[in-house]
User: Fold AMP nucleosidase from Duganella violaceipulchra.
Amino acid sequence: MEHDVVDTLISPEGQLEVLSKAEVNKLLDTSQGGLYNIFRNCALAVLNCGSTIDDGKELLERYKSFEISIVQRERGIKLDIKGAPAIAFVDGKMIKGIHEHLFAVLRDIVFVSNEVTDNPKFDMDSTEGITDSVFHILRNAGVLKPMLNPNLVVCWGGHSINRAEYNYSKEVGYQMGLRDLDICTGCGPGAMKGPMKGATIGHAKQRLHKGRYLGISEPGIIAAESPNPIVNELVIMPDIEKRLEAFVRSGHGIVVFPGGAGTAEEILYILGILLHPDNADIPFPLVFTGPETSREYFVQINQFIHDTLGPEAQQRYKIIIDDPELVAREMQAGIKQVREFRKSRSDAYYFNWGLKIDQEFQHPFAPTHENMRNLSLHKNQEVHLLAANLRRAFSGVVAGNVKDEGIRAIEKFGHFEIHGDKEIMGPMDELLASFVAQHRMKLAGKQYTPCYRVIQ
Assistant:
């Protein structure tokens, strides 16, 4: 089936007008060591904004003829695009937000490769080195703003939520926007788009013209969660772990909406960090919320956390059902505490250097069949380390659901097998089964085939 496509030539605006010849050559280098494939795939995902595909493999196969190349001119560069999804254009002209996002993709992929990944200055084996790299990528993208009071709320939740949950996330965003709170999400559809959309209305009513809608993605997930065009600051981190660290170090509080395995992964990540003894006194407002129809979802999540990480973990968050105003007030009050805490210690407002993030949460986890089988899922370890391993298990399920390489690995080798203690695997199996039953693993209308088997 042929899909409508457009060819175009575009120039950067405001950023990346100048690239060195070496940088351009690196991008044009289509060999194994080059960056072309990752650049092409992320660019295609950005251009596919507004589509209903949540399958990286399907997107790449649908637009096989898509090509993007950098044309070097004496005055700078242009992007020559062939076979782009027509959804990115209005009357033959590319939508401005998507135009900006394309150059954000180019900026992050060139910068991250040249200045971070291939740079011996960053010791990627040390906690400090990894945090430093996250800081540099965010700073280069212009998202660390030193003169602002803390007001950035990170919103997590599923890309395939139902209409009632989406409308609720929008209402929460609206209430936060009215209170001059900015929004940061994973930048895709669903619970990532709703809060931003709501906040734009809240900001407009308060005549706040500098509302921030920060989207943080990574190459493996961007095809399944194309950035929504409300995002006015897009950053693509090199991997899921740096993406999660970017969320918790740049945000001042977190609101979690209903979701599936990816949302469970995010919850386990933040709880694992907050449960580290060094972080016991650090204020970090964390609220789980949804409409009345999602109550059961949070009952299950809460029960799962109780059964695996224990009551101490439950102390670190509040569950608010069906009350957007209360969520916004809770965030506002929590962020006020964050500001007082950081001010008393002369800490930066724009980057949370104070959080201790264990290496277990920082090193990229490759969800291969072998790594999934060997995860350490037992109670005989510190609780924050158990949270790290549970996060990896859910990360593997996400990869098998929506990431191109994960889907292909499942097709080739069959299900991921997840082993562990009965008292952990039982609740995990129940939670995943409930996600499937509630259609939280795929966008509506798609049949979900599990990519994992829980072995007790």
Remarks:
- The two ends are 44 Å apart (CA to CA).
- The longest helix spans residues 96-117.
- Residues 81 and 260 are 35 Å apart (CA to CA).
